[in-house]
Write a structure and sequence with these properties.
The complex is a heterodimer of chains A (111) and B (141). With 111 residues, chain A is α/β, with parallel strands linked by helices. Chain A is 38% helix and 16% strand. Chain A has one domain: HprK N-terminal domain-like (Udp-n-acetylmuramoylalanyl-d-glutamate--2,6- Diaminopimelate Ligase, Chain: A, domain 1, 3-Layer(aba) Sandwich). Chain A has helices spanning 3-9, 34-40, 55-62, 78-87, 98-107; strands spanning 13-16, 28-30, 46-49, 67-70, 91-93. In chain A, α2 links the parallel β2 and β3 (46-49). In chain B, strands 1-2-3-5-4 form a five-stranded antiparallel beta sheet, covered by helices on one side. In chain B, α1 packs antiparallel against α2 (33-54) and α2 packs antiparallel against α5 (107-114). The chains are: A alpha/beta (111), B alpha+beta (141). At the A-B interface, α2 and α3 of A face α1, α2 and α5 of B.
Chain lengths: 111, 141
């Protein structure tokens, strides 16, 4: 499954990284503590978080994550969008919370 | 190959630039992705620490066929008790920093976990030097 597929199926808004929507997805990681994410998220994961500042792009880029879903309507800073576009990291936003997103992702067959 | 970076201490949200550059170089050199991942994690944590606690500093990277040797040197406040700072969950970060997802007390533990060798020397009021070695071949693991 690709990032563009989950955008469509979960009704997510793409706010950055449109050039990388073909990224393949392996699994999902949820977390808001950056060091924790650094230590545990696997490459090609979807990362669900409520952090929206520019440093999330560095984390996603260093770990080769497939995309970031900023949940619960958290507003994404402009500099985050700019950096994500440069680094080609898709940022997707939604009003749904992490639990809802995970239920839907499991339903789509992502383990 | 030697690389040098000056880490800007003014905007901690932009930290990670040096790590990102080194990652790109290692990828071009054809280093295995799991080793790049370990280096990226250890470097990112050291870089973030430098910005959060020491107002930036200098990073020197030395890449040889056997290993990558990275030195982070700052002129910050120093670490009073390195053993305590190494404990998972221990952090002196402010509430403001924690709200942004930093300050989980995982920085030094992550550096230790993902490097092959970690050496920290610190003097109060003078600064801290963090040296990280990651071997680039399996024998070093």
């Amino acid at each position: 499954m690709k990032v563009k597929d989950i955008c469509e199926k979960l009704d997510l808004s793409v706010v950055a990284g449109e050039t990388a929507l073909e990224n393949e997805i392996s699994t999902v990681y949820v977390g808001d503590l950056l060091s924790w994410v650094m230590a545990h998220a696997k490459a090609s994961s979807i990362w669900i978080t409520i952090q929206s500042h520019v440093n999330i792009v560095a984390v996603a880029s260093l770990l080769n994550l497939s995309c970031i879903i900023v949940a619960e309507g958290a507003k994404v800073d402009e500099e985050t969008v700019e950096k994500a576009n440069n680094e080609e990291i898709p940022i997707l936003t939604t009003n749904k919370d992490a639990y809802c997103l995970i239920k839907e992702l499991i339903h789509l067959g992502i383990e | 190959m030697k690389l040098n970076f000056e880490v800007d201490g003014d905007d901690f949200l932009l930290a990670g630039e040096a790590s990102s550059q080194v990652k790109k170089v290692l990828k071009q050199l054809g280093v295995a992705s799991d080793i790049i991942r370990r280096i990226a994690i250890a470097m990112y944590e050291a870089e973030i620490n430098m910005v959060l606690h020491a107002n930036g500093g200098m990073v020197d990277v030395d890449i040889s066929p056997e290993k990558i040797y990275i030195v982070f040197q700052d002129t910050g406040p120093g670490i009073e008790d390195i053993e305590l700072a190494m404990q998972e969950g221990y952090s002196t970060a402010s509430d403001k920093i924690r709200e942004l997802g930093f300050g989980a007390g995982m920085g030094l533990p992550n550096m230790k976990r993902y490097s092959d060798d970690l050496k920290i020397t610190s003097e109060l009021g003078k600064g801290t030097k963090v040296e990280i070695i990651v071997y680039l071949n399996r024998e070093g693991d």
